[in-house]
Structure formats: structure tokens, C-alpha cells
Amino acid sequence: MGHITITQILFGVLSFVAIISGVLMIFTKNPIYSVLYLIITFFAIAGHYILLNAQFLAVVHVIVYAGAIMVLFLFVIMMLNLNKDTEPHKPAWIQIAAVTAGGIMMVTLVGALKGADQMKLAQPNDANIGLVNNLGKVLFNDFLVPFELSSVLFLAAMVGAVMLSKKNIH
Amino acid sequence: MSAIQIIPLTWYVTLSAILFGLGVLGVLFRRNAIIILMCIELMLNAVNLLLVAFSAHHSDPNAQVFVFFIMAVAAAEVAVGLAILMVIYRNSKSTDIDILNKLKG
Hints:
The complex is a heterodimer of chains A (170) and B (105).
Chain A: H1 6-27, H2 31-51, H3 55-79, H4 92-114, H5 132-141, H6 144-165
Chain B: H1 3-6, H2 9-29, H3 33-58, H4 62-92
Helix pairs in contact in B: 2-3, 3-4
């Protein structure tokens, strides 16, 4: 593979955006900017899903993460009125230790997985597996009970969230 | 031409490892509990991306259904986690996790 194709360029750009905005999310002082950078990361990951022919997951990812979860985060941050001034700081030596430990773990993970180059294709791939048609069949044939159970989980989570945020529970 | 033929699986493994490491770094680095929850989301997404990459390379739709369930659990987790954070903030007027050391023996 001598020349660089458009897909590789797209992969590079999306990965660069994801990693850079992830780093900015961690090191920005203002929590609202952190949320916005995390949304950029999520959009880059949705782009990766589209590159991988997982269109359904890309759409669900944008709806659930960028649409619901991050709005929830933003809403809580704005409701608590958090900003740069209220942001707690760790002592410098703990920050240095955290960066060292996290960096070492990242390097170890990347280095350990670098040698795993023997992962070849098991079979000729099928571009249709990520489409709604195919995934819906799998979801409602093989995973019907877990799917229904996840609705019970949502109900429990909803009741729990309402109960927790209620004032004056006796 | 899709990415499955062109981009080696190793690249996706590396990208996921970097994103997961960033999530761990954020959990260690920050003291604001909301940012720590966001870093946990980033780690979940790194794993999701890896699952989708393996799913696409092996033509196995089951992994994508798994990612779907992980998203559902993450949504429930965030709802309950933020509710707990609201209660903590109401009681201690702070989202600093270092205040929450009352369970220390």
C-alpha cells in the first residue's frame, strides 16, 4: 500500500480530532468547555462508526451521547453554576503523579497492543451488517430478552434519579 | 471502498487504547466529580469503538448489538450518577470529590 487513500486521510483527521479534543477536555479549567470538547470527541467517534459501515450505531451514538447525555451534563453544570472560579485544584505533585501514571498506562497499552498485528480477517466482510435492517433482525431475534430487560433498567434508573433528586424524603 | 479493507485493525486498537488512556488520565487528574463522570464516558466510548472495529472486521453484528446495550447502560448510569451528584452538591455545596471522604475508616 504505497499511496495514501482518502479513507486513510479521513481516519487520520478523525483520530486527530478525537485525541486532541480529548486532551483539551481533560486540561481545560472551565467545565463547560470540557463538555463541549467531549461533544467534539463524540462526533469524531461517530465519524469512525460511519467509516466502519456502522451507520445505525453512528446515528444512535449522536442521538444518545451528543443529544441526551451531554445535554444532561451541560444542564447540571449550568444549574450548579460551576465555572473556572469554583473549579477545585489538586496539588501540583498529585497532578504530576496523575499525568505520569496515566501516560505510563497509555504507553503500556499502546505498546502491548502494537505487536498484535496477526489479527487478519476471518471471512470476506459484509458491508451490510451495520445497517438497521440487519441489526434489527439480530436485536429482536437473538437479543430480545436483554432488550426488554434494558427497558426495566431504564425504568429503575428513572425512578432512582427522581427519588434521589427529591427533597425531604422521610 | 470502506475502511474495513484499507485501515488495519491495529490502528483502531491503538486509537482505542489512546482514548482509554486519556479517560484514565482524566479520572486521576481532575477533582471535579462531573468531569470524572465525563472521563468514564470517554473510556466507555473507547471500548465501544474497539467493539465496532472488531465487529466490522469479522462481519459479526452481535458486537454492534453489544455496543447498543453499552450505550443504554451508559445513559442510565449518567442519569443516576448526576442525580447523586446533585444530592452531594446540595449537601456540601461542592462537586470536589476530595470532600467526600466521610466513609474513610
